Amino acid sequence: MKSLGVLLSGRGSNFVAIADSIDAGRIPNARIAVVISNKADAPGVATARERGLTTLVIPSKGRTREEHDRELAGALTQHNVDLVCLAGYMRLLSPWFVRQFPQRVLNIHPSLLPAFPGLEAQQQAFAYGVKVSGCTVHFVDEELDHGAIIVQKIVPVLDSDDEHTLAARILEQEHVAYTEAINVVLGGRYELRGRRLKTTQGQPL
Ligand code: GAR
Fold this sequence. Notes:
about 200 residues, alpha/beta, Rossmann fold, 2 domains, seven-stranded mixed beta sheet, two-stranded antiparallel sheet, about 35% helix, globular, binds glycinamide ribonucleotide
């Protein structure tokens, strides 16, 4: 049984998608050991509590990145977390933190990276006028929205779209993509050469 630690700062729909996938057996042999937020009032924390999961709030405000990340890493280690999933976690992790969990931190981003890193990626893509966008699940490295790509999903931009309808269709694909990526990583079903990740047969899940 593998243990996931989910980090979030807001709504938590990606967290819910992961939790639903586990409950439905789409992510086999896994459990969410802890849900951690840097924001006490994140709706995702309330949802996690309602689902009976262990939740922690580790506030980031007014603390140095390193101080905060040490507490975060300590909590994840204490809960024996095998894989850390950032699910709308809107705080940059320190290089120190990333080094504690090599190839063990995933992030989801609402664009086809390397296009539109940073905040409000869907709005950036819409304003730029791209004809396709999508989402990316990638390993977290020391640079923002940068690590090796595990799964991407393409979402066409329709003439009838506004930034909200586009963001909503990207979000649907995010929920599918995260489950796929977690299965690839937990199953050891990949080989990584530089930035290129090749999906392999790997362990039976
Ligand atoms: C998602 O769209 C996620 O891709 C994005 O924040 C949203 C969180 O939604 N993350 C980033 O932009 C990270 N750079 P959720 O709280 O409903 O999962």
